[in-house]
Amino acid sequence: MNKILLVIRREYMTRVRKPSFWLLTLLVPIMLAALYAIPIYLAMKPLEKSVVLVADESGVFGGLDRDDTLRSDSHFASTDNVTYRYAATLDYAKRLMDNEKDVTAILYVRHRASDALPTDACLYYKSDLPPQQVRYDVDRQLQRILRNRLLQAHGISDDEYALISNTKINLRTEDLETGREAFLDVKTGLGFILSLLIYVVIFMFGSQVMRGVVEEKSSRIIEVIVCSVKPFQLMMGKVVGIALVGLTQFLLWVLLTGIALVGIQATNSELFQTATQKHELTELATKGNEATLQMQQADQMADIPQLIEGIASIDFGVILPAFLFYFIFGYLLYATLFAAAGALSDNDTDSQLFSMPLTIPLLITILCMPAMVNAPSGTLSVVLSLIPFTSPVAMMLRVPFGVPLDQLYWSMALLVVAFPLCTWLAAKLYRSSILRFNRLSIRRKKR
Amino acid sequence: MILEAQHIEKNFGDYRALDDVSIAVREGSIFGLLGPNGAGKTTLIRLINRISRPDKGVILLGSQPMTDGDVQHIGYLPEERGLYKKMKVGEQAVYLAQLKGLSRREAERRLIQWFDKFGISDWWNRPVEQLSKGMQQKVQFIVTVLHEPRLLIFDEPFSGFDPVNATLLKNEILALRDKGATVIFSTHNMASVEELCDDIALIDKSKVVLSGSVASIRRSYSRNLFEVTVLAGDASLSLPAEFQLHGTAVGDGEEKLRVTLPEGRTANDLLAALMPQRQIVSINELLPSMNDIFVETVKKGGDE
User: Fold this and answer.
1) What pLDDT, in 10s, does the model give residues A22-35?
2) Is there a single domain that holds both residue B18 and residue B58?
3) Closest residue by Cα to residue B277 from B240, B250, B238
4) Do residue B99 and residue A229 have CB atoms under 8 angstroms apart?
5) CB B23 within 8 A of CB B201
6) Under an 8 A CB cutoff, do A219 and B50 touch?
7) 3-state secondary structure at position A377
8) Could you give phi then psi for residue A365, rounded to 5 degrees?
């Protein structure tokens, strides 16, 4: 068997057989699945019943001095989960809270003589913070009641209000030639995810290469190995072997996460639906103004097709090959240099020092990301996406926005050219340093 | 000559590690590469292993200039030796043997034999880090010789071995020599040089300062000092004044005399003077030990 293949095989097998590899391979999909599943389970979980005492000095929110001329939806309405009770004064409410265990919080609306309408309300609680659902519901009802008071005072009908509040003008960004919408938000998100992924891959597996080299050096097996394998073969075998480990892990992540998500959806589809329906019904019951409600819902719903449309508008035919290309070549470019940094050092502490110059271009790119998102075709973006050391991260940020093909090809070509140059340099450093220990002390001896 | 290094020069920056170094190793012999620390022994060994290249000079293997493929014919046990700590012993040995060109099956077959021989078969599936240092050394030795190379290079092979294992190792080295392998080894242990080596080269300050067969070198350092054993007699011995008598040890009815001969005299002359007086049991020339020669040569170099 070819020696470089033997080295690749060893590097691959020893890493893939480690428990830590499988731990990481399993943990990431589990974490992603949990991120997806936890909100579903929380939504399904029956909420605790909460009781909120309303001490309204102003009378605006249906307190003691209730104004009977007001419309019926101008006071707090209990929901499935939150029961509202009115208390005459704050002191009385406090006493009630001390005596009754099921009182969750007191809503106190202060009345200042100078204000026509109250501007300040406070939700008091004792030791246990009221659930977010309760705070959310209280806030929503406060705003609704206030709004209804104003509508009534100014003689505006609900229909008129709905018309005013729901009339919007939609601003889109569209390509003049293709007539397609830009969907900048979706693209920004995707660009961030892809370029951060490339950054993580380069760092994680690049430093694995470095640690592997340091291990060979510090255990002194290197001297045994280099008399049967050329240093270049050893270095490339290590770099390629670890690349295969990375690809394996990545594919397993994608596969396992996919299986987990499909599994969660399949087993919980009914519960998931009932949970959302229930949620909608609760909202329906608590919202007095149905017209407004429906308009708002329509508004929210519109976001989702827009997201889907945005994703669909992205040119995955370019993004996926580009990602694979920058994933592989970005890693290769850095991995050989990380190997050289490992060869220059005697131990892990040294290697941190020697790998510093490698981390700087990557960090600069990460720091420039916000500016690049601001102007994906600006000078900074173009320059960073052409320089081989920054291009893998920078270009992946730009690709979802659409990059002129000649720039993409130039960037790829420069990276492809830089790779053998870097490898040549790294191999030279690697060969000359791999058998030198305590470089500093040797120099001293020479003098 | 199985291996010849001719006029080798190797520089590291401004530092000349080897300066016009030539050695010749006879096939089937054991060759000692001696020298104080930092003299350039390891540099020369690395050149022979093609780990690095000489700046000047050539290395011939079987009278052909060496090529990269020739490392298959060399087994090298470095002074600074190690193994992958997390890897299992057997797996690692197979890997290292495969790198030397053996097939997996052949490597396993030979390894099982060697492991049996050294009594470490039980350790096949253990990670290396669980092995004692002595056992790791055994594994390293096995891996070095497994592909049955024509030329074996041991750099300080005995360091770190206990006396039992050192003897085991020594016998294995001799057995390999008897099977036709040529052995180069570098060491500070001068007793083992006298015991094992046929030829040596002493390197000091990047240069070969002494080389040749161990016997001829020791003879050339002869001080004309002889030890004669005679049966004890009643009358006291008297030697001509030109023979310098260093002392007499009496015991077991025998007397041991140490005598330095003057220039131009031989052992026969000494015997002729002694024979009328005593019965001769034995006569030996006391050659300087390799240790003495080493120290003397290196010191002389240091004084210059």
Assistant:
1) 998 999 888 888 88
2) yes
3) B238
4) yes
5) yes
6) no
7) coil
8) -60, -45
Residues of A in contact with B72 (CB under 8 A): 228
The pairing of strands B3-12 and A121-125 is unpaired
Q: Does residue A441 surpass a pLDDT of 50?
A: no
Q: What is the pLDDT of residues B259-288, one digit of tens each?
A: 888 888 888 888 888 888 888 899 988 888
Q: Is A16 on the interface with B (CB under 8 A)?
A: no
- Which domains, from first to last, does chain A contain? 3-32+183-446 (no CATH), 50-166 (3.40.190.10)
pLDDT one-digit tens code per residue, B128-173? 988 888 888 889 999 999 989 999 999 888 877 788 888 888 899 8
Do B236 and B125 fall into the same domain? no
Which chain A residue's Cα is nearest to B79?
Answer: A223
Is it the case that residue A178 has pLDDT exceeding 80? Answer: no
To test the contact with chain A by mutation, choose from B14, B48, B51, B142 the residue with the greatest count of A C-beta atoms within 10 A, namely B51
Cβ–Cβ contact A229 with B under 8 A: yes
Contact at CB, A230 and B68, closer than 8 angstroms: yes
Domain interval for residue B231: 223-285
Provide the Cα torsion A425, A428, A430, A436; round to 10°. Answer: -140
pLDDT at residue B107 greater than cutoff 90: yes
Spatial distance between the Cα atoms of B269 and B279, rounded to a whole number of angstroms? 15
* Cβ contact, residue pair A446, B14, below 8 Å: yes
Q: Are residues B228 and B203 in the same domain?
A: no
Cα–Cα distance measured from residue A334 to residue A203, given in angstroms and rounded to the nearest whole number:
9
Q: What residue has token string 């039980």?
A: B122
Q: How many structural domains does chain B have? A: 2
The total of other beta-carbon atoms located within 10 Å of residue B114's CB is 19
- Report pTM: 0.74
Residues B261 and B166 placed together within one structural domain of the fold? no
- Res. A443 pLDDT band, cuts 50 70 90: very low
Residue-wise burial string across A405-444, b where 16 or more C-beta atoms lie within 10 A, e elsewhere: eebbeebbeebeebbeebbeebbebbbebbbeeeeeeeee
pLDDT for the residue numbered B303: 63
Judgement on whether residues B16 and B158 belong to the same structural domain of the protein: yes
**Where residue B252 sits, what CATH number does that domain have?**
3.30.70
Residue B238 resides in a domain: yes
Query: DSSP label at B235?
Result: S
Give the type of residue at B157: P
Query: Look-up: residue for tokens 């990670």?
Result: B127
Is B30 domain-assigned? yes
Task: Indicate yes or no: CB of B68 within 8 angstroms of CB of A14.
Answer: no
Higher pLDDT, B287 or A268: B287
Residues of A in contact with B15 (CB under 8 A): 446
Give the minimum alpha-carbon distance from B112 to chain A in angstroms, rounded to a whole number: 21
Question: What pLDDT is stored for residue A271 in this prediction?
Answer: 56
Contact check, Cβ <8 Å, A6/B76: no
Beta-bridge partners for B184 = B31, B153
Instruction: Indicate the residue of A14, A230, A446 with minimum beta-carbon distance to B87.
Output: A14
Average pLDDT (A166-185) is 76
The predicted pLDDT at position A288 comes to 45
Q: Which class for A357: exposed (0-12), middle (13-18), buried (19 or more C-beta within 10 A)?
A: exposed
Q: How far is the C-alpha of B169 from the C-alpha of B142, rounded, in Å?
A: 10
Nearest-10 Cα torsion for A283, A285, A286, A287: 80
On whether residue B71 sits in a domain, the answer given is yes
Is residue B260 one of the residues assigned to a domain? yes
Q: Do B96 and A225 touch (CB under 8 A)?
A: yes
Give which of A361, A185, A248 is closest to A22, Cα–Cα: A248
Q: Which of A61-75, A273-287, A432-446, B259-273 has the lowest mean pLDDT?
A: A273-287
B256 in the same domain as B192 = no
The residue count for chain B: 304
